[in-house]
Structures are given as structure tokens and as C-alpha cells.
Design brief:
alpha/beta; 6-stranded mixed sheet; 16 strands; Nitrilase/N-carbamoyl-D-aminoacid amidohydrolase; 478 residues; 16% strand
């Protein structure tokens, strides 16, 4: 392989392989093994190519990789924002690889294997902290179908998933490039191997708890239609009847808690009061806790709340969405309260859709010790898998189940480990329903919920320090 990479044709071929792997790793429905493999050929190209060629090939490969979501970004953010997002992603991949190249080509220190994963985890931490879109686009979500790998997030957060995947690729690429010439090869290759085995072993153990958690039967209903004036009254009533029929059907099957999507209808204050009475009657008639999302259009403000109604027909909570969609929800007023209610002896939190893109939001409910989140939502169709995965990872990080009912997406129930307890696609009238049994774990914060992103910020600090601390031994640049 080394001889092949000494030729330009070989390097172009390797870059093309890396680009293809990155394309499938970064899709809205990612192929998780591709994420572990994609950086390897890109790093090897950079290690063997002259500086300008290395940068060009990596940027081109990254451009191909991130283009997997081009049409989705155009649909949801517009052309200018799409260009900015894609350029930043391309530059980030170029930074990861070229910075690692500059260290690996001049150092035989066994610690060089940690440069690439630390950079990835550091940038992931920065983006999740400062981006207006929270953790959207995080490399951690590529692993949501590989459950053992994501359990480490319950201790160290999502950046540790990024670090784990990057560590594998970095170690493999450096082993191919440096081989036994590296100082202390037993440490250079042994420590990463041990860390990966320990992380995956921890994940396997966590996925098989020693005690069985009690099961709660929940239901979800979604109709892919937003009732917005001037919708014909008969159409609006048809949608509300479909929801009532779905709730009644799920209640007869034993559902004790039923969640409907966000923004089922835009309502004036008078309409909201009347609809709330109808929903309270439905909850009382079916004997369920009912969570419903609506839009309230008052004279001076608009809100995106959800109502929680008891089997007695009482409104016991009204939660207002914290994180509104830029531009699309710029006319709405954000909320700022975290709402927890005891249902059948267990603490449940309330959230709406985009709230769960944000790590501090999810961690707040972890610290409050909820057993599950009830989440009305509304997605963009194509991002159904990813939207559900992002919400589920908040549950893994903080130790709670996520019961998420979304329009134009999935009705999705995940447990505190990210296992899918139930999933169904939403549908137009007469809508779709899902009945699922979800295990509720102990209402206690995970280690991550207590300590936060310490690991990610340590990776950031280590990455900064690496620019000022030179390697102790050098080899000639090949």
C-alpha cells in the first residue's frame, strides 16, 4: 500500500475511496462502519503527498463527502446558508487531516495517534456549544446504529464518540505509515487498542443491565397536516377527528400515555380554550395522559406550546419550546422553563422537537432526574432518521427514554440506551399510530449529566497545547 501511495494515481485513488466512504458516513441515514474507515485513506494520502497536493485532495474528498446532504440543506436553509455550512465542513476536514499530517510527518512520538481524534472531538465540542443549530451535523450521530459505541456518551458525552471513531482511524493510518519506526510502538498502538476495547466493552455491559426496568405502554399519533388558517373548517375537523380516533384506538390497546405532534393547529385564544376542553374530554374519556402540541396566535405574540392533560381532564402542564427554528419560527416567542411532572410514579420531562439538538437542554433534564421525555415534533421528511437519532442520543447521554411523536417523520420511542422500542412512519389522513412498551430506568442522572462536557473541553485544551509543544524527536519528511 505504501508503494501505491507514492504515486499520484495511487493517492488520487485513495482519496476517492475516502470520499466515497465519507459520503455514506455523513448521509442523513449514515452507514456507521464507513465513519470508522473514511479517515484512514484521507490521512494516508496526506502523509504521503506534498503539502499542496495533500490539501487539494483532502478538500476535494471532503467536498464529495459532505455533498451527501446538499439537497437537504438547500431545502431547509437556502442556498447561502448551504454554501456556508458546506464550506465550513470542508475546511474542518482539511484542518483535521492537514494538522495531523504536519505532526505525523515530523514526529516519532507515540502520542501522535491522539492528534486527529482530539481535534475532531474539540471541534465537535465548539460547534455544539456555539452553533445556532446545536449538535446538528455532529460526527457522533454516524454511530447511532452501533449501540455499544454510543454508550460512552453517558460518561463523557458525544465528543467521546467522535474521539473513539477518530482514534481507530488515526491509529490504523499511523500504523501503516510509521509502522515499528514510531517510538514505543507498544504504547502507540496498544493504548488506543485498549481504549477502544474498553469503550466498546463498557457499551456492551451497559446494554445488558442486571435488572429489568418496568415497562410502560405508550402511544403516539401523527397526521401529516398543519391546520393553519384559512384551512377549510371541515378539513380541520377531519384532522382532529383522526387524532381522537387514534387516541381512542391506542387507549383500548392499553396505552397509558399518548403523545401527539407539535403545531397540530394554529389557534386563536378563543379557539385554544375550546380545543383544550375537547382534548380534556378525550383524555378523560380514554383514561390516558395526553400530550398535544399547538401554535397559539395571540394579539401581541405567538407561541409554540404543548399541553399535558390528565386522565381526569385536568391541564397539569404547559411547556413552551425553547429552541425555535431560525427564520421559520422567528415570529414565535421562545420559552425558558423546564417542566417535570410525575406520571404513574415516574418523573417525565417535556420538550419540543428542536430542543433536543442542544446538549445543555438535554443535560438539564438529566440533572433533574427524569425517567423519560415526552416530545411533540415536526420534521422535514428526509431527516426522519437523523431527527430521531439526535433526540435518542440526548437520552443516552443523560439516562432517560425519549417518546417522540413527529409529523413528516417517525413516531419513535427509544430507551435510555438508544434501543428503539418502537418506530413507525407518520402519514397523511387518516394518520399513523404507534404502540410501544418502553423500559424506564432509574430516575437518576448519568455521570455525564452530572459533570458535563469536561472531556470535550480537555480535547480542546490538548489541541491548543499541541501547537506550542513541539515533538521530542523528528524524522525526515518523506
Amino acid at each position: 500500500m505504501t508503494r501505491l501511495l507514492e504515486t499520484r494515481v495511487g493517492r488520487i485513488t485513495a482519496a476517492a475511496i475516502g470520499a466515497a466512504l465519507l459520503y455514506f458516513a455523513l448521509k442523513l441515514t449514515p452507514f456507521w462502519p464507513a465513519a470508522w474507515l473514511a479517515p484512514i485513506p484521507l490521512l494516508l494520502v496526506a502523509f504521503h503527498a506534498p503539502s499542496r497536493e495533500a490539501s487539494l485532495l483532502v478538500w476535494l474528498a471532503a467536498a464529495i463527502g459532505v455533498s451527501s446532504n446538499l439537497t437537504y440543506y438547500l431545502q431547509t436553509t437556502g442556498p447561502i446558508a448551504t454554501a456556508v455550512i458546506l464550506i465550513l465542513q470542508i475546511l474542518a476536514w482539511g484542518f483535521y487531516v492537514n494538522r495531523t499530517r504536519s505532526v505525523v510527518r515530523t514526529s516519532q512520538s507515540w502520542t501522535v495517534v491522539f492528534i486527529f481524534p482530539a481535534l475532531m472531538a474539540a471541534i465537535d465540542t465548539l460547534v455544539s456549544r456555539f452553533s445556532p443549530h446545536g449538535t446538528a451535523g455532529s460526527f457522533a450521530y454516524t454511530q447511532m446504529d452501533f449501540l455499544p459505541a454510543i454508550q460512552i456518551a453517558s460518561v463523557l458525552g458525544a465528543p467521546s464518540i467522535v474521539f473513539l471513531v477518530g482514534l481507530f482511524a488515526s491509529t490504523a493510518a499511523i500504523a501503516i505509515y510509521h509502522g515499528p519506526r514510531i517510538r514505543r510502538p507498544s504504547l502507540a498502538y496498544g493504548i488506543p487498542a485498549a481504549l477502544i476495547v474498553l469503550a466498546l466493552g463498557f457499551g456492551e455491559l451497559r446494554l445488558h443491565p442486571s435488572t429489568d426496568a418496568p415497562l410502560t405502554r405508550v402511544g403516539l399519533v401523527a397526521v401529516d397536516e398543519f391546520i393553519n388558517p384559512p384551512a377549510p373548517p371541515e378539513r380541520a375537523e377531519a384532522v382532529w377527528r383522526a387524532y381522537a380516533d387514534g387516541v381512542t384506538h391506542l387507549a383500548t390497546q392499553g396505552a397509558r400515555i399518548i403523545v401527539l405532534p407539535e403545531k397540530i393547529a394554529a389557534l386563536t385564544p378563543g379557539q385554544a380554550a375550546a380545543r383544550q376542553r375537547d382534548l380534556a374530554s378525550l383524555a378523560q374519556r380514554t383514561g390516558v395522559y395526553l400530550m398535544v402540541g399547538v401554535q397559539l396566535n395571540g394579539d401581541n405574540r405567538k407561541d409554540n406550546p404543548s399541553w399535558l392533560l390528565t386522565p381526569q381532564g385536568d391541564l397539569v402542564a404547559e411547556y413552551h419550546k425553547h429552541h425555535l427554528v431560525p427564520y421559520l419560527e422567528s415570529d414565535l416567542t421562545p420559552g425558558n422553563e423546564y417542566v417535570v411532572r410525575i406520571i404513574h410514579g415516574a418523573p417525565y420531562g417535556m420538550a419540543i422537537c428542536r430542543d433536543l439538538l442542544f446538549v445543555p437542554f438535554g443535560r438539564s433534564y438529566g440533572r433533574l432526574g427524569v425517567s423519560a421525555l415526552l416530545v411533540p415534533a415536526w420534521d422535514f421528511g428526509r431527516d426522519a432518521w437523523m431527527a430521531s437519532a439526535m433526540a435518542a442520543l440526548r437520552g443516552v447521554e443523560n439516562g432517560y427514554a425519549v417518546i417522540r411523536a413527529s409529523r413528516e417523520s417517525y413516531l419513535n420511542v427509544s430507551d435510555r440506551y438508544g434501543n428503539i422500542a418502537g418506530r413507525a412512519r407518520s402519514a397523511p389522513l387518516p394518520g399513523a399510530t404507534l404502540l410501544a412498551e418502553v423500559p424506564l430506568g432509574p430516575a437518576a442522572p448519568t455521570i455525564y449529566a452530572r459533570t458535563g462536557n469536561i472531556f470535550g473541553w480537555l480535547c480542546f485544551a490538548a489541541s491548543i497545547c499541541s501547537f506550542f509543544v513541539g515533538p521530542k524527536s523528528r524524522i525526515a519528511i518523506q
